[in-house]
Amino acid sequence: MTSDLDDLQGLGFVLYRSTARAGLDGSAMQDILRTARHRNQSLGLTGCLHHEDGLFFQWLEGPADGLRKVVASLMDDDRHCDFEILDQGALDHRRFQDWRMRFSDRDRASLMDWFARSDSSTVHRGDYAGGVVAFMMGLDL
Ligand SMILES: Cc1cc2nc3c(=O)[nH]c(=O)nc-3n(C[C@H](O)[C@H](O)[C@H](O)COP(=O)(O)O)c2cc1C
Q1: How far apart are the CA of 70 and the centre of ligand 1, in A?
Q2: Structural domain boundaries of the chain?
Q3: Spelled out in words, what is the top-level CATH class assigned to the domain 5-137?
Q4: What would the pLDDT profile of 86-111 be if each residue is shown by its tens digit?
């Protein structure tokens, strides 16, 4: 269930969407992932980042304190804009236990194609956030 990160204790998650800065290239992407994985390891965070058609979708999970720190950094990061939280709240168990930050992009898998192919048995009508997580969890990289 969605709840504010400020009130959260224990394990939580954040799912957001943002717009990548124009001209962000492969080496900038590698920089982002290097920093992300390093810091996530020290804060005990795991998750998945998907990049497609100039958009980022990221699921971050872990201790609430660490999540709050990284979300504050993300909102201040000019490598992306239009930061919009799709869902956030408490979590019973991690979805990406083994990933300091899993990464995928359109070359590997397309979220838009996945949505276009999905029917009501995989994505509940209107549950955009649920669809994004289901896509990420189904990635076979
Ligand atoms: C799309 C995107 C995803 C990012 N993912 C993470 C992440 O998972 N963990 C993280 O610590 N930083 C991530 N970063 C980098 C942070 O925005 C920030 O630069 C970094 O955590 C250092 O924060 P600081 O400058 O406040 O110390 C990401 C940046 C972008 C643009």
Answers
A1: 6
A2: 5-137
A3: alpha beta
A4: 999 999 999 999 999 999 999 999 99
